[in-house]
Amino acid sequence: MKFVDSASIVIAAGDGGNGCVSFRREKFVPKGGPDGGDGGRGGHVWLKTNRQLTTLLDFKYKKKYIADRGVHGQGARKTGRDGADIVIQVPCGTLVRNAETQEVIADLTGEEQEFLIARGGKGGKGNQHFATPTRQAPRFAEPGQKGEALVLDLELKLMADVGLVGFPNAGKSTLISVISAAKPKIADYPFTTLVPNLGIVRYEEYKSFVMADIPGIIEGASEGRGLGLQFLRHIERTKILAVLVSADSPDITAEYKTLLGELEKFDEGLLNKPRIAVITKMDIASEDLEIPLLEEGVKVLPISSVSGHGLKELKDELWKEVSARERSAEPSEEGLGNDAAG
Predict the structure, then answer these.
(1) Is residue 250 marked as binding?
(2) Is residue 208 annotated as involved in ligand binding?
(3) CATH code matching the domain that covers 162-329, chosen among 3.40.50.300, 3.40.190.10, 3.40.1190.10, 3.40.50.10860
(4) 222: which DSSP letter?
(5) What is the DSSP code string of 143-184?
(6) What is the pTM of this model?
(7) Is 30 annotated as a binding residue?
(8) Is 281 annotated as a binding residue?
(9) Where are the domains of the chain?
(10) Which amino acid positions bind Mg(2+), per UniProt (predicted)?
(11) Annotated binding residue 209
(12) Which residues contact 237 (CB under 8 A, 6 or more apart)?
């Protein structure tokens, strides 16, 4: 399936039905009072997350979503039927902006999360509502209100626990293919990975976490060089970053600093995430290679995805960091009680 992480769509909620002008007409009641019914509400437009979706591809083919209008009111005080709502399915991690103002309307990260994006217009009142002692036969009713309409920009930021960052050919795709069920394209040339890949990493018997592999970053990615800038958004939601540098790099320390520099230029907040430095391809490292201390307080783990060296230690460390972030994000019991009361 083709990966698409941005799209623009037009949505319009349904208009409300018009109120009805009608008077009772029954045998032996020659001058019945007004009995015009109300119009039905126009259909709403909802967004709902679907964990089975991983791309915005569908929105490249269908760009307009228009809900039904409400049915007009009828005589005998009959209210028109409400217009049918539309529910638009989007992937978890979809950011929704008003295309005109670029204001963020919603950030949909939860599973089966629903958001009312456009309200249908209210139905108009029938003439029965406008009768007064001095105006007993009103010959007018209220029109239905217009439904809300707007153009949306959708942006997908993948939901993952661990984000892999590195230069092209740093071994990210090989790593994710070995420790998860993901099957990315792997080859010995730059930019083999052209789209983000997600993999579920099984840990011990009943535990797991999600890892994201994005296309390789090159120096200048934050200014638009290469593919890195286009996909860096997909590591903004990750709990941890694993910064990969190949053991055959001519200068491991300089490459590591360059990667951090590109992350900082794109979004300074990325450097606030916990990170682990990973030296890959130890199976082809020179015998005299010394693993440098790249950054104070950051663990450096040498691995080989080919031989399996260091992979258990890497999974142990990643799980420890992921579970620590999950515990810190859990709401307190006091907070849960306040939410329930509200």
Answers:
(1) no
(2) no
(3) 3.40.50.300
(4) G
(5) PPPPPPEEEEEEEE----SEEEEESTTSSHHHHHHHHSS---
(6) 0.72
(7) no
(8) yes
(9) 1-156, 162-329
(10) 173, 193
(11) no
(12) 93, 109, 157, 158, 159, 160
Both tokens of residue 102?
Answer: 């670029």
Q: How many CA atoms lie within 13 A of 333 on its CB side?
A: 0
Q: Is 172 labelled as part of a ligand binding site?
A: yes
Pairing of strands 104-108, 94-98: antiparallel
Mean pLDDT, range 174-185, rounded to an integer: 73
User: Is 3 within any annotated ligand binding site?
Assistant: no
pLDDT in tens, 185-227: 444 444 444 466 778 888 887 888 888 887 766 555 445 544 4
pLDDT of residue 330: 59
Q: Binding site annotation covers 338?
A: no
22 belongs to an annotated ligand binding site? no
168 is in an annotated binding site: yes
Written as six digits, the tokens of 71 are: 């049915």
Count Cα neighbours of 156 within 13 Å in the Cβ-side half-sphere. 25
- 253-276 confidence digits (pLDDT tens): 999 999 999 888 888 888 999 999
pLDDT at 285: 86
Annotation-wise, does 302 bind a ligand? Answer: no
Whether residue 151 is annotated as binding a ligand: the answer is no
Was 23 annotated as part of a binding site?
no
55 labeled binding residue: no
- For residue 338, give the H/E element and its range: helix 333-341
134 is in an annotated binding site: no
Does 246 carry a binding-site annotation?
A: no
Assign 215 to helix, strand or coil.
coil
Q: Are strands 149-156 and 94-98 parallel, antiparallel or unpaired?
A: antiparallel
DSSP string of 254-286, one letter each residue: HHHHHHHHHHHHH-GGGGGS-EEEEEE-GGGS-
291 is in an annotated binding site: no
What CATH number has the domain spanning 1-156? 2.70.210.12
- The answer to whether the beta carbons of residues 230 and 218 sit under 8 Å apart is no
Is 31 annotated in a binding site? The answer is no
What single DSSP character describes residue 39? P
